[in-house]
Amino acid sequence: MTDNHSQSFFGQTTGLTIQSSSKSDPCIFIKCIKKKPDNSWEKPSLGEGKTIKCSLDEMVLMLQVLKGKTDSWASYHTFKETNTQISFNWKENQGKKLWIKIGTYSKMLGPAQVEIFKLLLKHLIKEKIKYATVPNISKLTKDSNNINNNERKEMSMDTEKINLYATSPIKASTIKNDNSDLEKVKISGVIKAETEKAILIVFSSGKEIWIPKSIIHSNYLIESDARQEFIADNWFLKKNKIPI
Fold first, then answer.
1. What 3-state class would DSSP assign to 173?
2. More confident residue, 118 or 160
3. Cβ of 8: how many Cβ atoms within 10 Å?
4. Residue 240, Cβ neighbours under 10 Å: how many?
5. Which of 42, 128, 162, 239 would disulfide-bridge 49, Cβ 3.0–4.6 Å?
6. Does residue 157 form part of some domain?
7. Number of domains in the chain
């Protein structure tokens, strides 16, 4: 589905264009131009002709006339202290012909043009009700991002709390498992050094040993000189006779 629409109705001396720049805008623009004495047409890009902006409410009232539910509709537009009268009227005794007047411009639409205008207006109203009446998506996205950022900050703070809590001495204990070789054990000690794949831990007994990072399953603070708690694979501790 296209995001913009433009339909023009031209006669010998007057042209009328209905334009919707975006389905998310709750309005349309109606542009009127005349043929100049030199037979060239006025150019809106040069400030010539007349352009009005019609709201969704006005679109509905226009459609009522196009459907024949009302005989006429008129309104005034004010822009930069300039008043412009708009009117839609069925031409008496001339069949299904509609006169559209915008300021000093007037354009008569025949039956086929009226039907096209009616179908286009019905489509635009339906489209704009669907897309132009929703909340500001960019604002919702921004608010959602802010919420997500706040959640990430809170999670980060919670992680820091866990790490800080782990610096307090806790008595070693075993996390039970059916297979003792797969048990994970809580141990406590102080980090003395670090390499890419291991950390050197000093235990309360004074024993120092390099422990692979791959067998540690808890968070820890590398730069802390306080005693921390670690959860490590029991098979490695048993193999290296590390006291727990």
1. strand
2. 118
3. 11
4. 11
5. 42
6. no
7. 2
